[in-house]
Amino acid sequence: MKTFQERLVQGIALASEGKVEKALAELDTGLKQALKRENHRWTIHFSRNLGLLYDQIGNLNKAKKYYSIALRYNKSDPSSYYLLGDLYERLGKLALSRRNFTSCYQLAVKNKDEEFLEILDKRNRVKHPD
Fold first, then answer.
1. How far apart (Å, rounded) are the C-alpha atoms in residues 75 and 125?
2. N or C of the chain: less Cβ packing under 10 Å?
3. What is the pLDDT of residues 63-87, one digit of tens each?
């Protein structure tokens, strides 16, 4: 049986080769195994990558599902909030978008994550407190 890392690397490689259906199947299998073993770290990795892949192929509802799973297992990671904020913005759900971008910003400030602060500032997604 493949390790979680082998399965994730294989799924990403398949996606980069344009073999999207095979990549989705590989990542989904990894997610199911991670959930079954209650391995939160790998659940987050597989969920986020499934979300990104579904997002790339335009299946925003499935992308939202997987981004939300990643967030459920790690509420202190600004990237899941950012991805959901961006997705909700594209869906026209601006209140949900703002809420997620604000959570991303708050975590980035707390974690002193300059990369996210710069990205959010460039996108003008949150108002800085004076």
1. 19
2. C
3. 999 999 999 999 998 999 999 999 9
